[in-house]
Design goal:
Elements: H1 2-22, H2 24-42, H3 45-49, E1 56-58, E2 64-66, H4 69-77, E3 85-99, E4 102-113, E5 118-129
Antiparallel strand pairs: 1-2, 3-4, 4-5
Length: 135
């Protein structure tokens, strides 16, 4: 059974990698995430909130569910960062399609202080849903 599970996991990873390289919407997801990341670096909480569809869930202890954009603003305004934090850099980003309109973005990032010294390295997993245009 263990070998079967490993084989299935490897097939899933192969299909995710293929999907990333052939899905034209993956670039749209990446572009939207870049805009969010720039707003995060600018600490523009109102702009950050525009990138979220509410309700939005943030995995913390305990989990936070923001029912309004104002609650998203409040969440990021109170988001704890390292002392001396000045900015973040994206070290590695992968976008993968899970379903027709659902993607996940795997981010590896670093936080720096004003002297460009590394404060923290981490990773985050984001789940994103492509909105369907109503015409």
């Amino acid at each position: 059974m263990k070998k079967l599970f490993s084989g299935i996991a490897l097939m899933l990873l192969a299909s995710f990698s293929y999907g990333q390289s052939t899905d034209p919407d993956a670039e749209l997801v990446k572009n939207e995430f870049d805009a969010y990341f720039n707003d995060f670096n600018a600490r523009d909480f109102d702009a950050i909130a525009t990138h979220f569809q509410v309700p939005a869930m943030f995995k913390r202890t305990p989990d936070v569910i923001a029912a309004t954009h104002e609650e998203v603003v409040e969440f990021f305004n109170s988001f704890p960062l390292q002392e001396g934090y000045a900015y973040s850099l994206m070290d590695h980003v992968e976008v993968h399609r899970l379903a027709e309109s659902i993607y996940y973005l795997n981010l590896e990032f670093s936080h720096y202080n004003g002297s460009d010294e590394l404060l923290f390295e981490g990773s985050s997993l984001y789940f994103l849903v492509m909105k369907q245009e109503v015409g």
